[in-house]
Structure formats: C-alpha cells, structure tokens
C-alpha cells in the first residue's frame, strides 16, 4: 500500500466504489458547443418567478401542492405519489428499500438507461442483465430464467436510448411473473410524449408496480431535478422511510407546483406537439443523408440513427459545436448516435453537416475539394 495520504483514503473506500465506473452524463462528457443535442433536454428555457420566500425554514418533505397537482395530472391518489430529486433518486430509493447487498439482485435489459446498473453497483447489489431482442423488446423467457434472487426489475418505456415503447402485453406478462417475488419499476421518464402508453392504470392490479416519472423532459425542467414515483400506498410508505428528510428545496417545490398548474400543463402539451412535429421532420431528413444507414422510430424527444463511420460523424459535428450522444458502447448499438430533438434551426444545422458526409461505399476523395468537410480519424472520437 502506498504511504501517501490520498492513497490511504482510497484504500478506505468500499471495494465496489473503488472499481466503479461512474455514469457518464452529458455534462461530465462536456464539449464546447452551441447546439446541445446529447441530453434529451428541451432547447429553450421556460420562465418562472419564485413566489416562496421562506428560505429560512426547512421545506416540507413532500410538498403538498406538488403532490396534489402531480396526482391530479397523473390520475392517481395523493398517497400514491412520492416526489424526489429527479427520477434518479427514485431508482436508488427502490434499491435501498428492497435490496440487500450480497443477497439480492436487480435485473435490467440493455441497451437501456445506464443509471440502473450504476446505482446497483454503488450499493453493492448484483447487477443481472438480460439483453433485449433484436427489436428491443423484452426477452420474457430469458427474464424468467434469470429471476432467482432478483428483487427489483427496471424497464424503461419509451426506452432510452432506442426510443421505442415496450410492448404492453410483455409488460403485463413481466408483472404477472414477478408478482410476490420482485418489484417492477417501469421508467416512464418520456411518457409525456406518448401518454396513451402509460401503465399507471395498472397500479390497481399490481401492488409490486412502481412507475418513475420526471419533470426534466416534456416539462423542460431538467435543471430543476424533480421526479416522482407512482405506486400503491404500502410501497410509497416504504420509500418514505429511506428518503432524505428534505428532498426538494423550497425553490424547486415552488417552480414544480407552477409547472403543474393547469396553465403549465397546457404549455407542456403544446411543447410536446411541437417536438413531435420537429421529430417527424428530422427523421425524414436524416433518411436522405448518405451517411445515415438507418433511422429508428421514436416515441420520445430524441431519435437514434445508425451511421456509416459514426465516429467521424460524431467528431465532425462535435468540432462544429453540435454535440450528440454516442451509443457505440451500448449492447447492440454499434454505429449508433442519439440525437435530441432541438429547435428546427438546430436540427437543420445537423442535417446541413450530414448531407455532405459520404455514405457507405462512397469515395471520400471529394474532401479535398470541399473545405467545409473535416477529415478525421475514428480513433480521435471524444468519449
């Protein structure tokens, strides 16, 4: 062991934390751009004015106005709602409440959101993965074969980063096979873009169902860090035992309540309609670009596409201040980049660059004659 103070501190850490690879969020990856299409954020900032000024007092653990308004929006009772610091905290609360290190496991189905695995590893819980089928639907038989000691199953629908909804019949089959054995957490972070697909009505049938929601996406409040868990009262009461005393600051609760007003919900729905229109335009435009091999359908605020020489595409856009999300390291997503639906002007900038990049089988000798095209090595792609 090294005698340096920093080395001794590292040795004191839990072994699983020393070996942990943290989740690479968009902000950790960085970049110097003016078109940020890598974090599934809304491109324009909504405006709110703080009305609460009681900063000298601790906030409510579960702010009444936020709970009541989200319950009304989601169509559930107030005792079926827990509010937290983003849906990411909900992911961790479920692990803390239901999983014992060295005994239990969590199961999830890649390619999917990376925080399920990171959170489990942080708490020393076994991570068990069952890959999805080629169409990114659940492999129910493989899940059934791997449920031993699984206490918690995460499913993202619409799935991030692929954008597809998980088949409702498969979700119901999953809930039926896990009843009495494990909690099923269905992550509906993007459900506001396709509300008809929510499973919230199933809460009455499945006491082990937890639904994760957020204000980060359709409500355009990623910087607020406000999320929700929807579940039946016994499950909510367990989560309340392990949540921090004051999960939402007073300003966050104030703005969240405003966003969930009737006026705020109307604005959100207008925003969703606008994003859907831009998404349809971008999908069609991408399909006309020579370097695009395939564009996948999406029920969310992003599109995923497979590119010829995706590392060159990624770096070319990066160098022009357009930041996408590289998905090459995800299971089954070789050559894939995820593109957040920005403004129409931002999406047009993406297309303008992609239209001059060569596709499969095309010669890149025209690079020398086109000064706007950047020649790069795939090995130089920033991660």
Report the strand count.
Answer: 13
| CATH class label of the largest domain | Alpha Beta
Principal-axis shape equals: globular
The SSE string, one letter per element, is HHHEHEHEHEHEHEEEHHHEEHEEEH
Structural class: alpha/beta
Look at the structure and give the mean pLDDT.
91
> Which percent band covers the strand fraction?
5-15%
Unreliable residue stretches: 363-383
CATH homology superfamily of the largest domain? Type I PLP-dependent aspartate aminotransferase-like (Major domain)
From the N-terminal CA to the C-terminal CA, the straight-line distance is 31 Å
Largest sheet: 7 strands, mixed
**Sheet with the most strands: spatial strand order:** 2-8-7-6-5-3-4
- Rounded to the nearest angstrom, the radius of gyration is 22 Å
CATH architecture of the largest domain: 3-Layer(aba) Sandwich
Give the % helix: 25-40%
CATH topology of the largest domain: Aspartate Aminotransferase, domain 2
Number of helices: 13
Question: How many discrete structural domains?
Answer: 2
Could you explain how this protein is built, in words?
The chain has 383 residues and is of the alpha/beta class. It has 13 helices and 13 strands. The strands form 3 sheets. A 7-stranded mixed β-sheet has the order 2-8-7-6-5-3-4, sandwiched between helices. Strands 9-10-13-12 form a 4-stranded antiparallel β-sheet. Helix 5 packs across helix 6 (115-122) and helix 11 (262-287) runs parallel beside helix 13 (344-354). It is globular and about 60 Å long.
């Amino acid at each position: 062991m090294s005698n340096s103070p920093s080395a001794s501190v590292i040795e004191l850490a839990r072994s699983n934390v020393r070996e942990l690879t943290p989740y690479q969020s968009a902000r950790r990856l960085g970049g110097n751009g003016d078109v940020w299409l890598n974090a599934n954020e809304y491109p324009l900032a909504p405006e709110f004015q703080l009305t609460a000024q009681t900063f000298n007092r601790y906030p409510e653990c579960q702010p009444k106005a936020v709970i009541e308004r989200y319950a009304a929006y989601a169509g559930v009772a107030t005792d079926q709602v827990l509010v937290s610091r983003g849906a990411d905290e909900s992911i961790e609360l479920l692990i803390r409440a239901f999983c014992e290190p060295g005994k239990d496991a969590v199961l999830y189905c890649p390619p999917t959101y990376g925080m399920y695995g990171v959170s489990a590893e942080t708490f020393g819980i076994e991570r068990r993965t069952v890959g999805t089928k080629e169409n990114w639907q659940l492999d129910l038989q493989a899940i059934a074969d791997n449920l031993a000691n699984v206490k918690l199953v995460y499913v993202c629908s619409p799935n991030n980063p692929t954008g597809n909804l998980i088949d409702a019949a498969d979700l119901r089959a999953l809930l039926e096979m896990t009843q009495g054995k494990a909690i099923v957490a269905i992550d509906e972070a993007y459900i506001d873009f396709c509300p008809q697909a929510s499973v919230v009505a199933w809460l009455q049938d499945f006491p082990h169902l937890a639904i994760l929601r957020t204000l980060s996406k359709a409500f355009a409040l990623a910087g607020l860090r406000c999320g929700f868990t929807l579940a039946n009262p016994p499950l909510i009461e367990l989560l309340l035992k392990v949540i921090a005393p004051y999960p939402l600051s007073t300003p966050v609760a104030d703005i969240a309540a405003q966003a969930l007003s009737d006026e705020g919900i109307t604005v959100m729905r207008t925003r969703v309609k606008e994003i859907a229109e831009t998404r349809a335009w971008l999908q069609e435009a991408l399909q006309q670009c020579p370097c695009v091999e395939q564009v996948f359908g999406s029920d969310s605020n992003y599109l995923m596409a497979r590119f010829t020489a995706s590392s060159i595409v990624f770096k070319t856009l990066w160098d022009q201040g357009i930041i996408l999300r590289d998905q090459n390291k995800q299971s089954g997503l070789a050559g894939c980049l995820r593109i957040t639906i920005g403004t129409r002007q931002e999406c047009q900038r993406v297309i303008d660059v992609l239209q001059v990049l060569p596709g499969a089988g095309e010669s890149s000798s025209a690079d020398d004659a086109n000064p706007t095209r950047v020649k790069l090595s795939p090995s130089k792609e920033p991660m």
